[in-house]
Automatic annotation (TrEMBL), chain B:
Protein's recorded name: Phosphate transport system permease protein PstA
Keywords of the record: Cell membrane, Membrane, Transmembrane, Transmembrane helix, Transport
Subcellular location: Cell membrane
Domain ABC transmembrane type-1: residue ranges: 76-284
Membrane topology category: Multi-pass membrane protein
Annotated organism of origin: Natrinema gari JCM 14663
Length: 289, 295
């Protein structure tokens, strides 16, 4: 398996590919079993992916290969298309009438925009966590079990709810109040509830759209710890406008700049220490954006 | 305050005229009072007239030519029967139409045309609906003159636009983040509507429907148009029983020559009608408050 770093086709390719540095933290975590995850297999791959909202182009010819069971951060200034990119992966953009997608986005080798792909079935393999916590006005148990319910996975629901809450680091706080409303929790707890809801049906990928931007620092750090743990089991793609957060938790970082252009995609350490592009460096050091 | 010499800035900013403030305030107060006072006067007047007439016997007797034996029971039961039928008809139709318009229909010309016409239909005079009911249910479908079904269907048409519009507003008020959360979990449209949108919109839909029923209970003109009898002596025992309703019975009594009818019996009927109406509206408020606290 190779570890190709793709960049936007509009910028000159960074051919001096960084082979997986042996010391990369995220890899070391998953390598203990010596399984196939030692080398990062590409799970999600975009080829010439463009998105238009009406006439406006929100994403411009994006090429990217997102590895399995790692945290990939997507950063960039407001309006750069990073959320649009995230919503392409599980076809949530289908819900926007004016949105039009060109190019390919392959999930496990299959283009999700092929005619024979059912977006509802696709979303059952991809969990999503949104910017502000959006639990349903239902009990904590019913919130976590929602995906299981709509996906017809009715066996061992209680057990799966417990497991999901445990993985979301929320079980200890809510174990004796599973029947109370999810809305009674604090903002940070609600967001972890939403993460539990997303992982309960055991998806392959978890998409997170600025999951900590509405939370205080303590809640944020809990979520960040959680995200790193989740990468042991799931492929995590997280959009964030917080560069320190991307640097802390991600293995790979994709930098989108204005016009929906993916300017650089590489190991997070490389992006933050020695980016190829001046524009990326300017953005990361705060001179732009 | 001590430096009241007119030279220090403490009171040296001058005065701004408040005359218009005061005048407008008084005008607004008068406008408020005219409405409230006349309503109170009406209620008081009717309530005073009803004293001595509104008793158990009035509520449990059938109508009678003798005002001292006249009762309201058939009209009361008739109204309630019609209301129940209306609720059964309008709730599924109204919610169905609202769900279609809000969740399924594309925002095209056809949708906007339908939307505009629903808003217009809500303002059509009730006598016109009476004519429609006469032609459609009595004439074309041959349901029969002035029975429970014909009355309920006709008035249901009348309040359907109101139910649809209020249900649409309730559905629109469900935050989009909730739908996104559901779709993001791999739910189909139906699952999202069934599990997320409708439960959250239901208090608003119920409130709107019940308030529309409050309007329906006072309707008289459509009942006259479909030839509902003004006075019925027995209780309705089937969908095809001839039925009267409270406002129709009151209207009938008011045309009697005896002053006992014109004042006492009519007033007792009006108070009964108002009590039923206020009860319906209170139920709507209770439902709304109960669910608002939960969400």
């Amino acid at each position: 398996m190779t570890n190709e770093q793709m960049t936007s086709s509009e910028t000159e390719p960074t051919d001096d590919q960084t082979a997986p540095t042996p010391g990369t933290d995220g890899l070391a975590d998953t390598a203990d079993s010596g399984g196939e995850t030692t080398f990062d297999r590409t799970l999600l791959e975009a080829r010439d992916l463009s998105v238009y909202y009406g006439e406006e182009r929100a994403l411009a010819d994006v090429d990217i290969e997102i590895p399995e069971k790692q945290v990939t951060a997507v950063i960039g200034p407001s309006g750069c298309g990073k959320s649009t990119f995230l919503r392409c992966i599980n076809r949530m953009n289908d819900l926007v009438d004016s949105a039009r997608v060109e190019g390919e986005l392959c999930f496990d080798g299959k283009n999700v925009y092929d005619d024979d792909v059912d977006p509802v079935a696709l979303r059952r393999k991809i969990g999503m966590v949104f910017q502000s916590p959006n639990p349903f006005p239902k009990s904590i148990r019913d919130n976590v079990a929602y995906g299981l319910k709509v996906q017809g996975k009715q066996e061992n629901v209680d057990e799966k709810v417990h497991t999901a809450l445990e993985r979301a680091a929320l079980l200890d706080e809510v174990e004796d109040q599973l029947d109370s409303s999810g809305l009674d929790l604090s903002g940070g707890q609600q967001q972890r509830l939403c993460i539990a809801r997303a992982i309960a049906p055991d998806p392959d990928v978890i998409l997170m759209d600025e999951p900590a931007s509405a939370l205080d620092p303590v809640a944020t750090s809990k979520i960040e710890d959680l995200i790193e743990d989740l990468a042991e089991e799931y492929t995590v793609v997280i959009v964030t406008h917080n560069m320190q957060q991307a640097a802390r938790i991600s293995d790979k970082t994709a930098v989108f700049l204005t016009g929906g252009e993916l300017v650089e995609f590489d190991d997070t350490d490389k992006i933050f220490e020695n980016p190829e592009h001046d524009r990326v460096e300017d953005y990361i050091t705060g001179k732009f954006g | 305050m001590a430096a009241d010499t007119g030279e220090t800035p403490a009171d040296g900013f001058g005065r701004v005229s408040r005359t218009k403030d005061v005048v407008f305030r008084l005008l607004a107060l008068a406008a408020t009072l005219i409405g409230i006072v006349s309503l109170a006067a009406l209620l008081l007047n009717v309530a005073v007239d009803a004293v001595g007439w509104l008793d158990w016997q009035f509520l449990t007797n059938p109508p009678h030519p003798n005002p001292y034996e006249a009762g309201f029971l058939p009209a009361l039961v008739g109204s309630i029967a019609i209301m129940l039928m209306i609720a059964l008809v309008t709730f599924p139709l109204g919610v169905g139409a609202a769900v279609y318009l809000e969740e399924y229909a594309n925002d095209g010309y056809l949708t906007r045309f339908i939307q505009l016409n629903i808003a217009n239909l809500a303002g059509v005079p009730s006598v016109v609906y009476g004519l429609l009911g006469l032609g459609l249910f009595v004439g074309l479908f041959n349901i029969g003159y002035g029975n429970v079904l014909a009355a309920a269907f006709t008035i249901a048409l009348l309040i359907l636009p109101i139910v649809i519009i209020s249900a649409q507003e309730a559905i629109r008020a469900v935050p989009d983040s909730q739908r996104q959360a559901s779709y993001g979990m791999g739910a189909t449209k139906w699952q999202t509507i069934r599990n997320v949108v409708l439960p959250r919109a239901m208090p608003g839909i119920m409130t709107g429907t019940i308030l529309a029923l409050g309007r329906a209970i006072g309707e008289t003109a459509p009942l006259i148009m479909i030839a509902a009898p003004t006075t019925v002596f027995g209780l309705p025992n089937s969908f095809f029983s001839k039925v009267s309703a409270m406002p129709l019975q009151i209207y009938n009594w008011a045309s009697y020559p005896q002053t006992e009818f014109q004042y006492g019996v009519v007033a007792a009927g009006v108070v009964t009608l108002l009590v039923v109406l206020l009860t319906i509206n209170s139920i709507a408020i209770v439902i709304r408050n109960r669910y608002q606290q939960r969400t």
